[in-house]
Structure formats: C-alpha cells, structure tokens
Design a protein that fits this description.
Strand content: under 5%
Radius of gyration: 31 Å
Order of helices and strands: HHHHHHHHHHHHHHHHHH
Distance between the termini: 113 Å
Number of helices: 18
Largest sheet: none
Helix content: 55-70%
Structural class: mainly alpha
Length: 388
C-alpha cells in the first residue's frame, strides 16, 4: 500500500509539473507575441535605439551563424546603412526634388560618373570665359610656330574645352553631385565609413587652408576636385595618393596635401593651354585621360623631389616653379615615369616613401606655415602666359 501510494503521488506531481510547464510555455508565447506586436509600427531607423534590441545585441556579441542566408545578408546591409548615415549640421544629403537613391553622399562616386554629370549640364555661361590657347605675339609667336608643339587635332578640341570649362566652375553646395564627390574624396583619403560635414576643421586636416574647400580652388575650379577624385578612385593611383598624403604629414617636411594638389591642377591646365600636351593627346586621340595622367605624374614627381631633396613648406613656391617648367618641357618623360612607378607598385617593388617614418608629433603645424603656390609667384614675361 505504501509503495502504491508513493507511486500515485509521484505520478500526480509529474502531471502537475507538466501542466505548469504548459502554462508557463503558453505565458511565454503570449509575451513573445506581445513583444513582436510592440515592434510593429516602429520605423527601421529607430529600431537600433530600442532597449530590448540593444540587450539582444549585447548578448549575441561574438556569435556567428554557421550558414548565412540571403535574407540575413540583406538585413545586415540595411542595418549597416542605418548606422552609416549620420545627418547633422552642415551635412549635405540631397536637394529637394532629387532622387535620394542616387544622390545620397553615403554612396561613393566614380570619376566617370562625375564627368558624365558635367557633360549633361548646360555650361555655356562658363565656356564663354575660357581661353583655349595662350595668346602669343611677336617673337614668342614666331618661335612657337617654328619650334613649338603641334596643334591639337580639330576633333579633340571640344574635349579640351570641356576640361577648361570645368576649371571655370566652382563648388556648388546645392548640387548633390558636388557633395558626393567631396564625401568620396574624404572617405578614400581617411578610410572613414561615415559622412562628414561639407564645412569643418576636418578639411584642414587633409590640407585645405580653411574649413571650406571651395575657397581654395582659385585658378583650378572644380577640375581640382575631379583630379583628386581621379587620384583616389583609380585603384592604381590610390596607393600613390595615400603615400603622398603620408609625406605631407611628415613632422618636418609637411605640406598641405589638397592645396598642393590644386596647384598641380593649375600646372596641368596651363600645360594644356600652352599646347604642351597636344602631341600626347593627338597620339592617344584623347584629352581627359592624358590630362589626368599628366596631373598624377606631376604630383608624383613633386613628391619625389620633396622627399629626396628634403624640401619644406618654405620651399614650396620655388619647387612648384621648377616643377611647372619641367612638366611643360618634358611631359612625355613624366608620363613614362608614372607608368614605370605604377607598374612597380602593382608588383610590390616600389614605394615612394621607402622605409622612412612620415608621421611624428614634432615640428610646427602646417596651418601655421605660409604656403606659396604657383599663382603667388611672378609669371614669366617672355611668353605672356598666365594661369586662368
């Protein structure tokens, strides 16, 4: 009797426990349903701020699924997009009426896409200002006719005029493409995933003289930004750009990187107007790629001279003057040097900076130093040629 009674009581307790477990499961299911209902109606941009999701993310730290489905990958991309977009004061998203999907600065823009944007604009008012070639008189005109470079082929002159017209355009904060180009340059040079303000001290860190990049484009216009975009978006020249940026931050030999780039663009513009690039343009039957390569080659040569000859910011004006003379006289030589350098870099056989360290806390800040550009030097009087 005692054994049967104990058995009966044990079975009764087991059934009671199963009933309680079922009730607890039902209660948990109801709680889950109510929690899911609570998430409905919350915008996706606000989900990451929800306390429950933050707790779940903290608990799941370090856990990775064995198999990632396409739906999970898509959800992850959407979540990262929410984290990346950081709108705030001075951040340029898109103008009213424009397409958010294509004009958000969070998306990088290629050089060809930016160039196509300018090709679709009405730039007639800017084109009226250009002087495609340098006007020469007297003996200078005779010497150029007899011994100077050939004239640019007729079929390439429209492309040349487009380059010079873009150099007349300024930075327009109301144009979404301009904002995207600036954001792309900033992200590629800094490695940042986040958007930045169009005005701010972070531009001075990249070598502009002030918080607004538009104020440093004198003589080069928006072409200076297109050249920077070309430099950072081409996989072959990006390593070179980052090495020159490192050199510009040397504790003794530092210089303003972006401002120096603007001066290189000015040299390229003047070389194009003086027909120094006509022979190469005629050979390749292209203008824009030749001008881009000439800009990169000239920047490379400047960095080489700057590093090997231990130049400092006080030498900038003289270095740029000599660089302009060499670039106009021997453009083909600079282009060949660029080709050789890029080929060696692709094989890991060349480095602009070598093993030297170019970051240090010593030395004066570049913002406190005077930078002399090509526009600040006295132009040569023999040719009568001046920068635009």
């Amino acid at each position: 009797m005692n054994e049967k009674s104990c058995s009966f009581h044990n079975e009764q307790e087991l059934r009671d426990g199963q009933v309680e477990g079922m009730l607890d499961g039902s209660s948990s299911h109801n709680k889950d349903s109510s929690a899911l209902a609570a998430f409905r109606g919350i915008p996706i941009s606000e989900l990451k701020n929800h306390s429950l999701l933050q707790a779940l993310r903290a608990e799941a730290n370090g856990w990775e699924p064995a198999v990632v489905s396409a739906e999970v990958l898509k959800a992850q991309e959407e979540w990262e997009a929410v984290d990346t977009i950081q709108p705030g004061p001075g951040i340029f998203l898109f103008a009213p009426g424009s397409q958010a999907s294509s004009d958000q600065p969070g998306q990088l823009v290629s050089f060809s896409e930016a160039l196509q944007h300018f090709q679709t604009l009405d730039l007639s008012s800017f084109k009226k200002r250009i002087q495609p070639t340098v006007r020469r008189t007297g003996f200078a005109a005779l010497r150029h006719c007899l011994f100077g470079p050939p004239k640019l082929h007729q079929g390439l002159r429209e492309e040349r005029d487009l380059v010079l017209t873009i150099a007349q355009c300024g930075l327009d904060s109301q144009d979404p493409m301009h904002g995207r180009i600036l954001q792309t340059i900033y992200k590629k040079l800094t490695g940042s995933r986040f958007d930045c303000a169009l005005h701010g001290d972070h531009w001075e860190d990249l070598g502009f003289q002030g918080a607004n990049p538009a104020t440093d484009l004198r003589g080069a216009g928006f072409l200076a930004l297109l050249h920077l975009l070309y430099l950072v978006m081409d996989s072959k020249t990006l390593p070179m750009a980052l090495e020159i940026l490192r050199l510009s931050r040397h504790h003794i030999q530092q210089f303003p990187f972006c401002l120096m780039s603007v001066n290189i663009t000015r040299i390229a513009i003047q070389a194009l107007r003086e027909e120094c690039l006509s022979r190469e343009c005629n050979r390749q039957q292209k203008v824009i790629p030749v001008v881009n390569s000439f800009y990169a080659a000239t920047f490379l040569h400047l960095a080489h001279v700057w590093r090997t000859q231990k130049k400092t910011i006080s030498d900038s004006g003289f270095v740029l003057k000599d660089l302009e003379a060499l670039a106009k006289k021997s453009p083909r030589r600079l282009l060949r040097t660029l080709d050789i350098y890029l080929a060696q870099v692709s094989k890991g056989q060349a480095s602009l900076l070598g093993a030297q360290k170019y970051c240090g806390p010593q030395g004066p800040n570049s913002k406190d130093l005077t930078f002399t550009g090509v526009c600040d030097l006295q132009p040569p009087s023999s040719e009568g040629a001046g920068l635009i």
